[in-house]
User: Which sequence fits this backbone?
């Protein structure tokens, strides 16, 4: 069944072993640096693993091996932890690719400096239904429904952009679209062009008219198997994988061109690093996230958008040795990115669950090839990755009336801001209309869309304050949201649903 799925989803991406099956493992050294990664690689090889990628920035490696590998490596001197990042085996490690694995690929040594220093302390779709990739599509996960289920809409001509209006900008005379970046205190176009934001997602169609000028090929790559692949077009969506249009929709919300056609992004003119995470089996494995986070940080991203949750576990519990390692590895990558000056933004999820309370997980592990879904009860110590990691700006969704969307996750102390996500039952008028592959447009709802608005706002803040680090940028958004938030129950003063408050575009 697994081989059939691989073939149907496109070219078989794995090297077939001699009658063996493999799991992917993340090995974390005690030292979170290049020496640590080299040590972890040596220990992995000594235990019979095949090292596929080293992450020298965080002292971690990705290895493929058969059963019993983790037990052989755990407890070895200098090894902090090791755990499997998937539950269903594959025939072998990923196939070799020319040029894959180099985090420096595409880097322009003459490029401008970026702010570093202070770090913030701080799902997939619904079409005209939300996707818990973190958009909502009839309840599917940010990509659980498959792109065939997504109906496209006519070119909106940048009209009725209610989602942008909620950010606090007034429309220009005779124009139904808010006049976002033309007021006093708005960043100059050349200042916004100097800002790079990364969209870690299912890939971005950079041939879309709204995104041709936005996507920066030198800063874009695929991390769909945990290795950075900067070959031309590797960042584009794979039409053979469900939910592949999700990243294009998210990117349009962040930075679609303002030209009177299609849609306008929150930060039109910003540069976008398109980083494809969605793998050939339709999963966002932890190694893909680690790879994408490090790539974005090393290429100077000031904001990193994460509108998905890590597979195969919707919630990762510290008592499980594998899940604990996934949390630690992604946590290291997030801290690295924040230390390089990036604000890490993530969707809160579309399960209508309180992240601060015990809850039910009916979808994990979601990479199984046989058997029915499992149901398990988890406590508040079990976290969504990367949204519940320290320092991440986690975003809930509101509808066009500014009320919490029915599907949005929430939780006091677990969410940071609220932003437009839309109503999956409200049709094109109630959802968020944005770009879709092939020059098309789609109306989706979900916390995926909400997170993208915050990422665009970070870009505006970074253009206004190019010397600020990630802490100050995140604090600015929180302060502006709190100042615009009237107190009282069931309005934005309800911090369970709104965090600091509703997103306001920085000026």
Assistant:
């Amino acid at each position: 069944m697994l081989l059939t799925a691989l073939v149907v989803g496109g070219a078989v991406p794995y090297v077939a072993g001699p009658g063996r099956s493999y799991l992917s493992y993340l090995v974390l050294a005690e030292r979170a640096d290049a020496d640590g990664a080299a040590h972890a690689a040596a220990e992995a090889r000594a235990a019979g693993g095949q090292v596929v990628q080293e992450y020298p920035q965080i002292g971690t490696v990705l290895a493929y091996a058969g059963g019993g590998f983790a037990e052989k490596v755990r407890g070895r001197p200098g090894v902090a932890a090791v755990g499997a990042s998937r539950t269903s085996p594959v025939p072998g490690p990923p196939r070799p690719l020319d040029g894959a694995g180099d985090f420096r690929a595409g880097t322009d040594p003459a490029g401008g400096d970026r702010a570093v220093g202070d770090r913030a302390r701080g799902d997939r779709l619904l079409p005209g239904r939300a996707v818990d990739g973190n958009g909502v599509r009839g309840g599917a996960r940010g990509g659980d429904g498959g792109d065939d289920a997504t109906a496209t809409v006519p070119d909106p001509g940048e009209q009725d952009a209610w989602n942008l209006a909620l950010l606090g900008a007034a429309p220009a005379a005779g124009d139904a679209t808010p006049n976002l970046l033309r007021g006093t205190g708005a960043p100059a176009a050349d200042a916004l062009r100097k800002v790079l934001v990364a969209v870690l997602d299912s890939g971005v169609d950079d041939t879309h008219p709204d995104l041709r000028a936005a996507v920066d090929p030198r800063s874009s790559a695929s991390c769909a198997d945990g290795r950075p692949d900067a070959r031309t077009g590797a960042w584009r969506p794979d039409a053979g994988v469900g939910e592949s249009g999700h990243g294009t929709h998210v990117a349009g919300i962040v930075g679609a061109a303002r030209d009177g056609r299609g849609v306008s992004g929150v930060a039109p003119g910003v540069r976008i690093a398109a980083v494809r995470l969605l793998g050939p089996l339709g999963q966002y494995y932890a190694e893909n996230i680690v790879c994408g986070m490090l790539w974005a940080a090393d290429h100077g991203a000031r904001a990193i958008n994460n509108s998905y949750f890590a597979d195969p576990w919707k919630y990762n519990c510290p008592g499980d040795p594998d899940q604990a390692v996934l949390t630690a590895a992604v946590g290291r990558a997030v801290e690295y990115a924040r230390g390089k000056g990036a604000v890490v933004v993530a969707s809160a999820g579309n399960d209508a669950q309180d992240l601060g309370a015990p809850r039910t997980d009916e979808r994990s592990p979601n990479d199984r090839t046989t058997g029915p879904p499992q149901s398990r009860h988890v406590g508040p110590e079990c976290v969504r990755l990367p949204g519940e990691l320290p320092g991440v700006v986690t975003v809930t969704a509101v509808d066009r009336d500014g009320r919490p969307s029915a599907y949005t996750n929430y939780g006091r102390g677990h969410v940071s801001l609220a932003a437009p996500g839309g109503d999956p039952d409200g049709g094109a008028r109630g959802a968020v209309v944005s770009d879709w592959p092939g020059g098309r447009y789609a109306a989706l709802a979900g916390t995926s869309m909400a997170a993208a608005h915050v990422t665009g706002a970070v870009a505006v803040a970074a253009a206004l304050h190019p010397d600020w680090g990630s802490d100050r940028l995140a604090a600015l958004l929180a302060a502006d949201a709190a100042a615009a938030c009237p107190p009282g129950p069931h309005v934005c003063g309800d911090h369970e649903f709104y965090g600091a408050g509703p997103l306001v575009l920085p000026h």
Summary: Confidence is low (pLDDT under 50) at residues 1-12, 109-122, 137-148.
